[in-house]
Amino acid sequence: MEILIPAERIQARIRELAAEIDSSYPDGEEVHLVCVLKGGFVFMADLVRAMGPRVTLDFIAVSSYAQGTRSSGEVRMLKDLDSGLEGRHVVIVEDIVDTGLTLTYLQDILRARAPKSLRTACLLSKPSRRQVSVDVEFIGFTIEDRFVVGYGLDFAEKYRNLPYIAVLDGE
Ligand code: IMP
Ligand code: MG
Known about the structure:
Helix content: 10-25%
Shape: globular
Oligomer: single chain
Bound molecules: inosinic acid, magnesium ion
Largest sheet: 6 strands, mixed
Strand content: 25-35%
Radius of gyration: 15 Å
Structural class: alpha/beta
Strand order of the largest sheet: 4-3-2-5-6-7
Distance between the termini: 10 Å
């Protein structure tokens, strides 16, 4: 396995992203993070600990990839949020934006819940794979079209625990 982004680089970038997110809201305003399971859980855990004190969080689960490395184009809600979003500053926290289909779906359903603002943070972006244009305000790293694992991202549910981003052999 080839290491694409070492753990230290991820951690340094997350501190920058946390500061960027914090400073983009007026002082004292609460920010509500919505982690997209399962891939977003490691990113969320590090991001939230690098942010200021006025943060709340919740989890949502969707499935976008049936199996393996190809998008089915179909998004299904597996677990909804515990609390409402009305009047809150919401940030979707996702592992990667690839075709953009998952985030488009999520942004549409969350926007319908009338948040005060809705933004999106993705650790990774693969712009060359985009099928729909989607706004992502906070991006950790832009990468080429290679299938990556680690730091929350899986291949067939494996490798989520790696502290770095790696390219699978043969990719
Ligand atoms: P999209 O709907 O095509 O943008 O897909 C987003 C989802 O596909 C992400 O949340 C990941 O779960 C998964 N995904 C996309 N690219 C990769 C990858 O390179 N490795 C692992 N999962 C990926
Ligand atoms: Mg995901």
